[in-house]
Structures are given as structure tokens and as C-alpha cells.
Amino acid sequence: MEERYIASVDLGTSKIAVCIARIQGQSVQVVYYKETPSQGIRNSYVLNPKKVEDVLRGAITEVQQEMRMKISQVIVGLPRYYVRQEVKSAKMEREDEDSPIMEQELRELKCEALKTYPLEDSKTDVIYGAVAQSFSTEDSFNELESDIVGMTAATLEGNFKVFVGNRRHSSNIDNIFRSMGISIAKKYFTPGITAKAVLKEEQMENGVALIDLGAGVSSVTIFEGKIMRYYAAIPFGGNSITNDIKAECSISFDLAENIKKGYGACVHDKLSSFGNKTLQINDENDNSGIQVGVKYISQIIDARMGEIIEALLYAIQSSGYAEKLRAGIVVTGGGVELVNAVNFIKNVSGCMVSIGSPRPFFTCEDNAGARSTGASTTMGMIYAAKGDRSLNCTSKPVPVVGKPLREKISEMQAVTPSSKPADEEQKFNPAAQAPVEAQVREAAPATEGPRQAPAAEERKPEKPSTPSWFELPNLEAVQVASLEAEENSIETTVAAAQNDEPAAQDFGGTVFEQSEDISAKPQKKEGKRKKKITWVQHIQRGVQSLFDEMGEEQV
Fold first, then answer.
1. What is the number of domains present in the chain?
2. Can you give the pTM of this predicted structure?
3. 39 and 152 inside one domain
């Protein structure tokens, strides 16, 4: 079965997570996952591209050296803050009003609708994603996608929730990877795809609020009837708690973060004997120090956590779906790792609360971090991209240079002379009995021993140094033409993803990719009249809809 790899990068406020997943059919195996402290990112958006590039360049180089593979393209998430949602509808006239509506027509409406979406200011705004809420004809109103297919009508109207973000925040991400010589295969507005990796289908059907407690941004995403109904975010998270501890104890941010992770807990009046402990913080320079009680640290955490949760509960109440959350609240993100965090949210909200970790759709033997709540967004991107069979972000692993001699001898013994291929005869020769150091040095022409084939004499010896493609090029060394000539370019992979039926069936939704990739959709047959798309703004009441996966960000 063909093997391919997906590389994802999660640009978080406190960490940059790089993940490599091997895809074989429906099997997903995480072969690499590592988090690196980030710099230059504020509230989940890139504020200082140079600082972000320096950290990311080191992280990518490290994974390439460890996995012995080259990363040519990645999937990446968009910022979760500075995003507004708009309710719009698009309408088109059908060519044959007596023919039944087909799924292809719905996809064309979605693509054409986003392509012609009227942004207020295209210089500062860009579409991050959209959710198809319902479809209507002249005879029916607010029908689900599964119900509208097969109907006959002269007009077809789609109702959408469009998520609009800041263009500069998106272009900063493009510039970082372009400078590193890596193309971006897909961009995702992550709230929807994070839910797919964390929530169960029945939770999304019955109504649930997914709270994502990040370091710089906390957000709430509401699903009901398998539809993304509402999204809101606030610029407060785990870093706000750390800053409070830093200010109250007059210590550094890093030390405050370590104290929060090691001794921080919510619900200070339920700590029992643990709350009576005292931490002694000494200064290495003058041996002076301060004493801080664990209970006092917990009180600081409770105060800030209470403000964050109350703000998110207010957003839930404003959405109009507070009474429809039969599955309660699911909490994910790094902030939920605090002790008693779930009990604290349960006490404040009065709702049923549970922890949302990535569902076991993948295996990870040596990468346990991929199963943590902090990796929910990363695994959501992997889950969303695995259905695109044309997506392969890396080259295959290459043999490790300088393999121990005993491993080479065992490989030689495992190959019989009758079954040994010609290239293996060239690789394993009597010279392999020499020390490993001698194997990687440039050898002088052999004067003794059996004569080798001419191809073996001309073969250059392997060098122990790291291959040049492990080091990422600078912007001056990267040619734009080389990016356009990538075998799996952005346009090619997204065009294939739009025609990928298995990926379009997740949770009954349809992959909703927009931006530059829309131009790659198949051309219509000649002779057909071009459909005209018109936008209508209205207020929706009692709308039923179908969940659509978040897509890419540019038109």
C-alpha cells in the first residue's frame, strides 16, 4: 500500500508544534511530534515574522535531521483571534429547472459564492473559512443538504456563515514559509477541525460547546445538529494566569510558568493538606528568597480562570444555544491540564463538563504528546488532511549515514548470493569489514582484492556530513520558480482535495476549500451558460444546516 507523509505546523502563542504523520490507506501513525517554545506570536497571530521564522527554522531542521527526510510543504492553522463571523446567502439561477439538483451543483455554488464574496475591504480582510448553514429554493426554505439534493427548482440559494480575518496575519504566515523554501499545502481555520478530532458525532448532533483554553486565546465553538452554529474568542488564556503569578510573586515569567505547571491548581478551598505547603523561592545571586503558599497561588489562578470562564459563558449565552447544549461542555487545550480545572468550570457553569483529548484515530508509539489536550489542534489538521490522497508533504526516509558495522554485517548475512540484487552487491563489499570511520572517508582506488564492477568503482563514497537539504535556505537562495515547480503544488493538491469523495463525507459535511485553490476546480463543459451568483444579506431564524469543514484562506 502506498505510503505518504503529512507535515503539520501549529503556530501557538506559547509553543510551535511540528508533527509528521505517516498515512497508509486509512491507517494514521504519528512518527514525530515535538513542541518548541515560540517567539513573536501574540494571541495566536504572527506579530514578529523574523522571530517566528528563527524558531521555526530550527524546529524544521531538527525534524529533518532526526527523521532523515525533507519537508517540502506543510499544512498550517490560521489565527483564532481577530476573526468576525458574518451571515450571508448566495443565490444562483439553474440552467435546467426541471432537472434534479445534484451534489456537484451545491459544491459549485459554495465555490462560486466564496469567489465572489463581497469583502468590505479586500486590502485588510481575507476569508478564513465558511460554514454552509442551509439551502433554499423557490418552493422550500432552509433545507439540509441531504434533503435539497434531488429536488427540482429554477433557483438555488445557500445560507452561509463566513469567517473573516486579518489579511496581514495570514500573509505573515505565507512570508515565513516562503522564506524557508517550504510551500503551504493547506491553511485551516482550526475551530471546526479541532472539534472533529475531539468531539464525538453524537455530541455534535445533540448540542455541545467546545472550549479551547490556549495560552494567548480562549475560544468557544458551539455545535448543534452536526453544525457549527457559533464561534467566539477572547484574548486571554494560560499566559494571563502566568503573568498574574509573576506580578504577585515578583518573579520571572519562566519561573512563574514552572510554578503554575508544577503546583498550580484550581478550586483553592478543596486542596486539603496540599494547600498548606509553602514554596521557597531563592535568588541564586544573593541567596535571598521569598515564600509563597500553594493555596495563595491557587487563589491567583482561580481569580483569573473565573474571569476567562465567565467571559466564555457570556458568549455561549449570547449565541442563543445555551439551552440546547444537551451534551454539555467539552474543554480542550493546554489550559485544561491544570489540576481541578474541570471541577472549577463545572462549579462556575453548572453544566456537565468533560475533557476533550484527540480521539484514537491514530497510533503514536514514541510520541505520547500527540494524545495530550494541547495537541488537539495539530491532530485536527492531520485528521482533516488525511483524506486528500494527493497530499504528500515529505520525501521518504533515507538510510542513516554511518550505520553501526554489526548492523551492516547482519544485513549482509541476511542476503543470499542467489537473491542479492546488483545494487546490493555494490553496497555490501569486502571493504565493509573496515571500521565505520574508514567507510565514510574518501577511499583511495583499490589495488588489492577482487576486481569490482566499473559501476562500483565510479560510485562516490558516502559522506558523514548532514545532507545539504537538511539546512533550510535563506530567502536570497530561494527562487520563486522552484516553488512553482513543486510536484505537489498548492493548486494541485487542493484541486485534488475538492474532488476527494471520502474526505467530503466526514460528519455528513463537504470540504469547503476556498482562496487561490478555487481557481483549480475543473472547467465546465462548453455550451453551458455561466451561473450568476448574487449575494443577499438577511437575518436567519431557526436555520437548520449541515456542518462544513473549514477550508483555506484566500480567494
1. 2
2. 0.73
3. yes
